[in-house]
Amino acid sequence: MAIEVRIPTILRTYTEGQKSVEGSGATLAELLSDLDSRHSGLRDRLVDGSGLRRFVNVYLNDEDVRFLGGLATPVADGDTVTVLPAVAGGGR
Amino acid sequence: MLTITADLYGKIVAHARADHPDEACGVIAGPAGTGRPERFIPMLNAERSPTFYRFDSAEQFQVWREMDERDEEPVVIYHSHTATGAFPSRTDISYASEPGAHYVVVSTREPDRAEFRSFRILDGVVTEEEVHVVAGRAGSSPE
Questions:
Q1: Which of B22, B52, B57 to mutate to probe the A interface, most A CBs <10 Å?
Q2: What number is the ipTM of this complex?
Q3: In which band, very low, low, confident or very high, does the pLDDT at B138 lie, cut at 50, 70 and 90?
Q4: What global pTM score does this model have?
């Protein structure tokens, strides 16, 4: 089972510079744990105590997983998961 | 140093003015590896706030995918401050996640004069850089 996970520049230190890695799992949570077993520390950049980190966007194919099931979102062979750090900031 | 055409400089300032008193934000994409800003992409500020901005996540996905398909990268990430100066705030620094980008901050706190400054933000360290405005329209080059 292979699910492609696209990694943003800032997280490629966890993937030896690769912009795309593969993993498996039935849900996003399982997929992230699977990735973390080979790319230690990656999961912590995406998940905190209350779920997916607020300023990281994770997409299943074209959709933000916040609108699907968050960490419980089912994933399947052939899916593509994309990670993009949120672009944000402000005057304060 | 950020080298940018007067046309693109003007577009950023105009966007900031138009959205004042909310913060404006956007990207200027350019060919990967060239550091040349060419394609102006104003973005929705999903926070619609006078003190905070955030790219809409669906729009960001579309824009990033399109840049990838066109072999571009985000050369400039810009946003405006509506009541404070044109300098990265603590939140700007903590959320800066494109190590190769020039972070442009425009201040619209004064109605008749926009402040426009550019910075590199790497691992929490801010370094201001010179802004070199050149003639010509985006995308046109001598070669």
A1: B57
A2: 0.93
A3: low
A4: 0.93
